């Protein structure tokens, strides 16, 4: 009897957890394909349409919509914010991989005075709340002439992607035998060549893992984008979504859901495509770190 109750409770808990996770996904999916007159319905749309997706790629500035009796300007096309977000995320991943792989190799292979302090500092930077950095980073970007630019936003993202990537890769590099690098050096490779030809290929799962997580961190950033970007042509997707909100009201739920679906599917498909490498990298980084 007790075993039966335990299974019942576990089943109820599992159902509630799945409902909590998947109901928002269901709501976004059904709303994105619903015509205007069915967007607030709980069930699946009776007349599904792709119009919301066509609109977010074609609607321009100055388009108006009536909300609570007032005419409001709805969002422009999603193309520019999507391009801006991809530009920032891809560059942030590239620079994160270059800097963090070298820093992690240094921490995993060399012994020198102050190494423990450096490792502790990187771990502290990894868990440090990013929003606390808003004021100093904003001041720095203004002085460097990078305020209200995608380059400035990209460099700001490095403040939390590099510590995370360095901490993960350090643990992965520590699991790679140094004898392999020493054998390559005996054969005539320099230390840097052995790092590029031996260590990095063996650390491919870890590199893929940090690349995906760095991409997701940059892709979904709202804090730095809100503070550092001031021109509509520079806006990224998280800021672009704000066009659909006014005074606590959702201006256009159909297009909002379509935009959210497009924004979420890109990192989701990227993760699914290389899920095996991500799992290997996470396990190795967690165990060896």
What does this structure look like?
The protein has 289 residues and is mainly alpha-helical. The protein has 2 domains: 2-49, no CATH class; 79-288, MetI-like (MetI-like fold, Orthogonal Bundle). Helix content is 69%, strand content 4%. The strands form 2 sheets. Strands 1-2 form a two-stranded antiparallel ribbon. Helix 1 (2-32) crosses helix 12, helix 3 (79-109) packs across helix 9 and helix 7 crosses helix 8. The radius of gyration is 24 Å and the shape is globular.
Using brief descriptors, characterize the structure shown.
two-stranded antiparallel ribbon, mainly alpha, 69% helix, two-stranded antiparallel sheet, 2 domains, MetI-like fold, 289 residues, 13 helices
Q: Which parts are unreliable, with pLDDT below 50 for 5 consecutive residues or more?
A: 66-73, 281-289
Main sheet?
A: 2 strands, antiparallel
Secondary structure category:
mainly alpha
Number of domains: 2
Shape: globular
Beginning-to-end CA distance, first to last residue: 44 Å
Q: Give the DSSP E fraction (strand runs of 2 or more residues).
A: under 5%
CATH superfamily annotation of the largest domain: MetI-like
Give a short summary of the structure.
By secondary structure, this protein is mainly alpha-helical. It has helices at residues 2-32, 51-56, 79-109, 115-127, 134-144, 150-174, 178-186, 191-202, 204-219, 223-228, 237-240, 253-273, 275-288; strands at residues 64-67, 70-73, 245-246, 249-250. Helix 7 (178-186) packs across helix 8.
